[in-house]
Amino acid sequence: MRPPVASHRRSQSGLTQSVRVTVLSAAMATAAAAFSAAPALARPGDPADDSKAPGTVKAQLDRLYEQAERATERFNAAGERADSLRERVEQVADRVARGQEKVNRMRDALGLIATAQYRHGAVDPAIELILSSDPDGYLDRAATLDRVTGRQAEQLRALLAAQRTLRQERQEAARTLAELEDSRRAVERHKREVEDKLATARRLLNSLPDADREEYARASRSGERSGGPLRAAALSSLGDVSAAVGSAAVGSGRGLAAAMAVRQAVGSPYAWGATGPGAFDCSGLMQWAYGRAGVGLPRTSQAQRNAGHHVSLSEARPGDLVIYRDDASHVGMYVGNGQVVHAPYPGARVRYDRADMMPISSVTRP
Fold first, then answer.
1. Looking at the predicted structure, is the pLDDT value of residue 126 above 60?
2. Residue 67 CB: number of other CB atoms within 10 A?
3. Of the ranges 43-52, 84-93, 148-157, which one carries the lowest mean pLDDT score?
4. CA–CA separation, 243 vs 237, rounded Å?
5. Considering 190, 282, 309, 310, which one is annotated as catalytic?
6. pTM
7. Which of 19, 27, 29, 273 is most buried, by the most CB atoms less than 10 A from its CB?
8. At residue 293, does pLDDT exceed 90?
9. Contact, 348 vs 270, CB < 8 A?
10. Rounded Cα–Cα distance for residues 171 and 295 (Å)
11. Is residue 8 annotated as part of the catalytic site, yes or no?
């Protein structure tokens, strides 16, 4: 009777093993399903695991910095326009004040005429009408002048012209103030856009392991450091200043002076909206360097693209502006041997890079 028992036990063991396999398979399937569903349980806004790969993060950071740079140039343009409008407002306000003084003096002169006429018992109705009411509407009536002759007519016509000019100046002042308010709002809007992009980039950068974050901080768009062979090659192309100034092949005097100035900024931090001397954004660095050379440049990279005549990259000389991207949202200064000095992006410092590090829109010689 033992064999059947043994057979029975073997069948139980086989059944148990089968059950275990079935249970294990089901558990593995459940675990796999749970694992595959894990991303759906991630917190909203968390990037997928592969999005934290160094290469992917670098691409995302580069894109965010590029967008922030474009917004920075829009901020710079809006700020420049606001500054220009503020100057116009002051000029128009000054003209309005002087115009009002002129009108007041002319009205006072006509008041003396009215006083004299009153003493003789008869004030001209036209003068009485002008002096007793706001002349803005009455002076436009040609019939008023028809009642007056001689010197009084000339005075009234002059007052009419002065009053019309004053109204126009006031209207211009109102328009300019409205434009200034629009520009102020644009400045704030672009400022928020820059800050949002940079905050997102900082969060993304901080999500990286320390080693990857340090590697990104060391890397440049061209894969080179700010010193080393790039710097040495650029410096050798500038050579001795006194010898280079006389060489048309090296660059013009002011272009070379700007290139020497921009060299001194290497190592300075990037700061959006900054024009030096301690920190710079890309177009602010160009404006500062040419300012040191005694040349005024526009504030934005878009305006700097047209601040001189265009040459090909093969014809570039030290001091030429290399404008990047179709929208001209980045700019560097050519310093020789195929290199530029530029302020790359927030978190990086002014450095040397290859001139062809990004798509080139134009090369401008101020």
1. no
2. 18
3. 43-52
4. 12
5. 282
6. 0.58
7. 273
8. yes
9. yes
10. 36
11. no
* Location of structure tokens 């644009």: 186
Give the alpha-carbon dihedral of 113, 115, 117, 119, to 10 degrees.
Answer: -150
pLDDT tens-digit series, residues 231-266: 555 555 554 443 433 344 445 689 999 999 999 999
Q: Which among 120, 309, 310, 330 is annotated as catalytic?
A: 330
**pLDDT for 306-315, tens place per residue?**
999 999 999 9
SS (H, E, C) 45-95: CCCCHHHHCHHHHHHHHHHHHHHHHHHHHHHHHHHHHHHHHHHHHHHHHHH
Q: Could you report the per-residue pLDDT of 327-338, keeping only the tens digit for each?
A: 999 999 999 999
Amino acid code (one letter) for 234:
A
Sheet of 360-365, strands arranged across: 309-311, 360-365, 321-324, 330-336, 339-342, 351-354
Mark whether 282 is an active-site residue: yes
Q: How far is CA 78 from the centre of its chain?
A: 7
**Euclidean distance between CA atoms 344 and 220, whole angstroms:** 8
Please state, in angstroms and rounded to a whole number, the distance separating the CA atoms of residues 40 and 279.
44
Catalytic residue among 8, 309, 310, 342: 342
Going from the C-alpha of 143 to that of each of 31, 125, 129, 151, 161, the distances in angstroms are 98, 12, 12, 17, 16
User: Other C-beta atoms within 10 Å of 275: how many?
Assistant: 17
Are the beta carbons of 269 and 328 closer than 8 angstroms? no
Number of other residues whose CB lies within 10 A of the CB of residue 47: 13
Task: Return d(Cα 232, Cα 331) in angstroms, integer.
Answer: 21
**Catalytic residue status for 330:** yes
Indicate the SS3 state at residue 209. coil
